[in-house]
Amino acid sequence: MTVAAETLAAYERWAPLYPPVPHNPLMRAEQQAMREFWPNVAGLRALDLACGSGRYSRLLADANAAEVVALDFCVPMLMQVPIGNRVCASMMHLPFAAGTFDVVISGLALGHAADVYPWMAEIARVLRTGGTLLYSDFHPEAARAGLTRSFKDQDEQTCSVPHRDFPVAVQLDAASAAGLRVQAVHEVRVGMELREAFAGSEDFYQRWNGLPIVLVVRANK
């Protein structure tokens, strides 16, 4: 099974348990950080890239975006998206004309890209001049430390989701190569921005205190 097929199978398995809201402490800390760099989307066309169950589609609509397009490669996830125009496609090959969107939002998805350079290039292509990209992903330092993306399915079996590690410098270089100007780079760190209690959190925070676990980047075209 290829990495892409393995990733899709994992998300198909996860979809029945994946609500369109941040449902764990890490996702709540990630979304709070994304909101700190949230662009003004009122009256604009926005793409929720690799939307999952549509939590950012909901936020875009709540912020009065004129149009929201939710794109994901997993149909069971897309079926949960409550609003916007739903499109099933690969984030590596976007089925849109150049300059279609004013804003692209992508939450915790870059690590599923085959390569960060074409991923950035596709986003830059569909962004209009002056448009904004805001994305988050699991921090490469967390991946190198041994933390993984996993979930429990309906049978309480732990499943891992494949995730590629793109160093921060490589991500920023890919953005520059695509013609995007990076405006902000923010790290969510264990015990700092991520400090909500959960089962076993005392040991987790003691072991990983200070480790960057999520990266948030905002860039303009």
Main sheet summary: 7 strands, mixed
| Lateral strand order in the biggest sheet | 3-2-1-4-5-9-8
Q: What is the residue-mean pLDDT, rounded to a whole number?
A: 92
**Apparent shape:** globular
The total of beta strands comes to 9
Give the fraction of residues assigned to helices.
Answer: 25-40%
Which structural category fits the helices and strands?
Answer: alpha/beta
What string, H for helix and E for strand, traces the elements in order? HHEHEHEEHEHEEHEHE
Question: How would you describe the overall organization of this protein?
Answer:
Helix 5 packs across helix 7 (168-177). The chain is globular and about 45 Å long. By secondary structure, the chain is α/β, with parallel strands linked by helices. It is built from 8 helices and 9 strands. The strands form 2 sheets. It has a 7-stranded mixed β-sheet with strand order 3-2-1-4-5-9-8, with helices on both faces. A two-stranded antiparallel sheet has the order 6-7. The chain has helices at residues 3-14, 25-36, 55-62, 75-78, 116-126, 140-145, 168-177, 201-208, and strands at residues 45-49, 67-72, 85-88, 101-107, 127-138, 149-152, 158-161, 181-189, 212-220. It has a single domain (3-220), classed as 3-Layer(aba) Sandwich (Rossmann fold), CATH 3.40.50.150. Helix content is 32%, strand content 27%.
